[in-house]
Amino acid sequence: MELTLLGTGAPAGLPRPGCPCAACATAVGADARAATALLVDDVLLLDLTPGPALAAARAGRTLHGVRQLLLSHPHDGPAQEVPPGLPAPVRVADGRRLTLISGHRVRAVALDAPGTGYEIGGPDGERLLYLPPGAGPAGLPGSPVREGAPGAPYAPAAPYSLVLLDVLGRPDALARLRAAGAVGPTTDVLAVHIDHGVPPGPELHRRLAAAGARTVPDGTTAVVGDYRAVPDLPRRTLVLGGARSGKSAEAERRLAAFPGVLYAATGGSRDGDTEWADRVAAHRSRRPASWRTAETCDLVPLLTAPDAPPLLIDCLSLWLADAMDSAGCWDEDPRRSAEAARVLAGRTAELVAAFRAATRTVVAVSNEVGSGVVPGTAAGRLFRDELGRLNAAVAAECEHVLLVTAGTALPLRG
User: Fold this and answer.
1) pTM, full prediction
2) Tell me: the pLDDT tens digits for 46-58?
3) Which end of the chain is more exposed for a tag (fewer CB within 10 A), N or C?
4) Which long-range contacts (CB under 8 A, 24 or more apart) does 14-22 make?
5) Which residues are catalytic?
6) Could you give the CA distance from residue 414 to residue 200 in angstroms, rounded to a whole number?
7) Which residues pair with 194 in a beta bridge?
8) What confidence tens digit (pLDDT) does each residue in 200-250 have?
9) What SS3 class is residue 269?
10) Nearest CA to 128 among 106, 146, 151?
11) Counting beta carbons within 10 angstroms of the beta carbon of residue 146, is it exposed (0 to 12), middle (13 to 18) or buried (19 or more)?
């Protein structure tokens, strides 16, 4: 099958008409995107983009052979233009199957949001899945179910060759597709319905690559099933940043499209500290409901567990504080402080060795405190120095290292 993307943007397009935001201001040239519409083998059109005939011509295609026009989601705004000669657009009932004279097979997939997804099988046996904006398949484990949604539960038979969905808006849907086996190691995941929530250009591609996805400019034609190098996902990533820099949100975003994540929270609970409780609650509210949480500083067994799902550690700074407390590093007696330093060095070396041996995907968060004001106490300076050493040692074992400042991730390695 050949698939031509006549548009790859959100229903309102990118830039949005009249929107003054920075993302819209920089969405020019190849970064400008019309509403998503897909042309399959010149015979099947999924959704409409403004001026579809002209969009097809710019891509070197024609709509003259289109025999079926399917819509996937409700459309707000002006009436959509249907070029003369095209069949009337329809939405297929959930679960219904169509077979076109061209040999293409279509199955309507029930969703957890308004709209309909489409599974397309080509005459060559390749299969793709297309989902509308803001939607994921219904019936998968962990899926929210739309009230009154008809249709049988979604059950993919095997991984698709190509999946097109709103990766940025619904990373959890991609995670559930992976968990169900619909997205495998060789599945090409294309992000569509691109909106202005992420700046276009390098930042967009960086975030998609972290999710194992990519996007292409409007007018691109792809051959479904052709081998493509899937974005290389690092096994170990260290995310550094100062207070309120956005480092935790960046770390969580990097794993939002993957199933079964274990969140290792090293901060624990603090009886009577309402401000700390509010911080913990804010972190929990951002995590997907399918994630598991372990409140522990015993990280070595988690890092070295074989064949385990992704692990997010937040954060190494609190792990270090716990390790220094346990070792007695705050004791001012020279003999006891020397023994404490030896114990701490052993625990740190054990942790770093576990990072080196890790076979699961790991994203770890830590504070970058070496660029601020010199602490006014000996204990504060000791903690700063030990955290700097720990960050450097863990970074040496990570394929990717990021520094987050003002909510912006700056790659230091990888």
Assistant:
1) 0.89
2) 999 999 999 999 9
3) C
4) 14/194, 14/195, 14/196, 14/200, 15/196, 16/195, 16/196, 19/196, 21/196, 22/199
5) 283
6) 20
7) 9
8) 999 999 999 999 999 999 999 999 988 776 666 789 999 999 989 999 999
9) coil
10) 106
11) middle
